[in-house]
């Protein structure tokens, strides 16, 4: 699993330190990422409110993607936390990262089925495979 990566070219870039990074490298998500993401997002006081529940889930889903970032350009150490990244990332770049996360998940699925990994389009099919 460690060899599977997706490089996402960002339009606005992520400012960190003295540099702005225009490439983010994503690795496949793990259950630990989900736990870390859940811990990083405050739970709304009123989970009976549908809008609050939806906003919370979107924040957790985005935080999972941010936890998948294993490099910004050549920077692999001292990366910003998911909480910090939320304040640094442009919404359009977040959309690109979501697409990259879907692509790396598809690569992981194909590798586990024994299929050769080729360029995977950013948009993946959400329907079940037919026999």
What does this structure look like?
This protein starts with 5 loop residues before the first strand and ends in a 19-residue tail after the last helix. The chain is globular and about 45 Å long. Helix content is 44%, strand content 18%. It has a 3-stranded antiparallel β-sheet. With 131 residues, it is of the alpha+beta class. The chain contains 4 helices and 3 strands.
SSE diagram, text form:
Blueprint lengths: L5 E11 L2 E8 L4 H10 L9 H18 L1 E4 L9 H7 L2 H22 L19
How would you sum up the major sheet?
3 strands, antiparallel
Number of strands: 3
Termini separation: 27 Å
Which ranges are low-confidence, i.e. pLDDT below 50, for 5 or more consecutive residues?
123-131
Number of helices: 4
Largest beta sheet: strand ordering:
1-2-3
Strand content: 15-25%
- Element order: H for helix, E for strand: EEHHEHH
Provide the residue-averaged pLDDT.
Answer: 88
State the main characteristics.
single chain, 131 residues, alpha+beta, 3-stranded antiparallel sheet, 4 helices, globular, disordered C terminus
What's the short story on this structure?
This protein has about 130 residues and is α+β, with helices and mostly antiparallel strands. Helix content is about 45%, strand content about 20%. The protein has 4 helices and 3 strands.
């Amino acid at each position: 699993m460690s060899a599977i990566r997706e490089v996402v070219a960002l339009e606005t870039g992520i400012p960190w330190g003295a540099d702005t990074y225009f490439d983010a490298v994503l690795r496949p998500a793990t259950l630990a990422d989900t736990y870390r993401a859940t811990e990083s997002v405050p739970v709304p006081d009123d989970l009976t409110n549908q809008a609050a529940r939806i906003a919370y889930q979107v924040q957790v889903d985005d935080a999972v993607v941010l936890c998948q970032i294993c490099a910004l350009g050549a920077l692999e150490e001292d990366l910003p936390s998911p909480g910090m990244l939320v304040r640094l990332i442009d919404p359009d770049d977040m959309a690109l990262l979501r697409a990259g996360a879907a692509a790396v998940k598809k690569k992981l699925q194909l590798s586990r089925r024994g299929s050769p990994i080729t360029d995977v389009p950013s948009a993946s099919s959400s329907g079940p495979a037919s026999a």
